[in-house]
Amino acid sequence: MKSETPIETIMSKHVIALTLDDDLQYAEKLFKSKRIRHIPVVNSESVIGMLSYSDLLRISYSDLAEDECNVDSIVYNSFTIEQVMTKNVISITSKTTIKEAAEILAKNEFHALPVVDDSILIGIVTTTDLLNYFIKQY
């Protein structure tokens, strides 16, 4: 296993991002249609937060209701992305090693890192990306 391999070799380069102008219903549609679990929130091209599907589940009552769509709409309209997203996001650069990224994720309680070069979001790496990389090594 190469200990100096940069994260840019395994990161997702086609990043789906949200802005503060988007709403939580739109975010949920992206999570479901793109089959993803983490979406960076940007202002221009700079990362200002991270929204995870788990964040939406925490505020949703849909598991308790018969009319899921109606309850989700009410709940999602009660909050903004800014209120729900994680702020003060840890990011890495494209030259950060895979080992360093794995150490950051192992030490913290999140599962995705935005990849930022010169204050611009250029990718995202998740625990799934890292697991797939490590599986290929064997």
From TrEMBL:
Pfam families recorded: CBS
SUPFAM superfamilies in the cross-refs: CBS-domain pair
Entry-linked Gene3D superfamilies: CBS-domain
Protein known as: CBS domain-containing protein
InterPro entries according to UniProt: CBS_dom (IPR000644), CBS_dom_sf (IPR046342), Diverse_CBS-Domain (IPR051257)
CBS domain: residues covered: 11-66, 85-138
UniProt keywords, alphabetically: CBS domain
